[in-house]
Amino acid sequence: MKIATYNVNGVNGRLPVLLRWLQETAPDVACLQELKAPQENFPEQAVLDAGYKAIWHGQKSWNGVAILAKKDKQITEVCRALPGDPTDEHSRYIEAIVDGITIGCLYLPNGNPAPGPKFDYKLGWFERLKTHAAGLLAADKPVVLTGDYNVMPTELDAYKPERWVNDALFRPETREAFKTLVEQGWTDAIRKLYPTEVIYTFFDYFRDAYGRNAGLRIDHFLLSPHLEKRLVAAGVNRDVRGWEKTSDHAPVWIELKDAE
Q1: Is 140 within any annotated ligand binding site?
Q2: Does this UniProt record's set of keywords contain Hydrolase (predicted)?
Q3: Is 107 a catalytic residue?
Q4: Which of 47, 65, 112, 155 could form a disulfide with 168 if both were Cys (CB 3.0 to 4.6 A apart)?
Q5: pLDDT at 108
Q6: How much is the pTM?
Q7: Residue 34 annotated in ligand binding
Q8: Domains in the chain, ordered, with CATH?
Q9: Which residue is catalytic, options 93, 107, 200, 210?
């Protein structure tokens, strides 16, 4: 099974890019973030015409997450909000079971400026994620937690990391939160297969960041122990970042062999 994650940065404005990417790479499952569209404006028919069914949780102008699955896959929604704060109205998490694999699609808060209320919200969201993730691991089932984490875990994950020391995506508190999450028993799929390579998933629109390969690795796949054993390939569709009117993120993907 091929599973991908892609922060589309506006699902309707980037719809031609999304549809081209789906056609060219044909993931079995695609997790999307930053839909930037209310629930009723998700382009469901275009996605269906592309061969995918979808569940989504939209939000006007901001956020929004979706899980797409090929039409021959069974997809069952589990929840469309991260547990732990019923007052949180941001559309940042959706979870489904696809062919026996629990897939959590997340868009973790940016947190800037830091310190401040937005950074506090980011760290609080992280704590809720860790609690939920621990419960998923305790269930002893195959789980993928993927999406835009807005975290560069190490200096290897940032071009010129010294420039990011005070940014919410790279502050010690953020990296420690990600580290403690992984240490629950999750596997960072990209680093499992490419422990020392420079790999970026985000390139700013300014200063020719894509052309200079001046990027960040902030889109991640965390795999439960069941799936760590099944991981056979992973990568970034870096070329998609170079397409016309594209997102500032590049899609990331993994391939899992069938369960034994």
Answers
A1: no
A2: yes
A3: yes
A4: 112
A5: 98
A6: 0.98
A7: yes
A8: 2-256 (3.60.10.10)
A9: 107
Catalytic residue among 28, 148, 157, 167: 148
Query: Is 249 tagged catalytic?
Result: yes
Query: In 139-188, which ranges are continuous DSSP H helix?
Result: 172-182
CA distance 97 to 95: 7
Residue 173 CB partners (closer than 8 Å, separation 6+): 119, 123
**φ, ψ at 16 (rounded to 5°):** -60, -35
pLDDT tens, 208-256? 999 999 999 999 999 999 999 999 999 999 999 999 999 999 999 999 9
Whether the per-residue pLDDT at 259 is higher than 90: the answer is: no
Spatial separation of the C-alpha atoms in residues 239 and 218, rounded to whole Å: 17
132 is in an annotated binding site: no
- Residue 255 annotated in ligand binding: no
Dist. CA 83–CA 178, nearest whole Å = 18
Contact 210, 188 (CB under 8 A): no
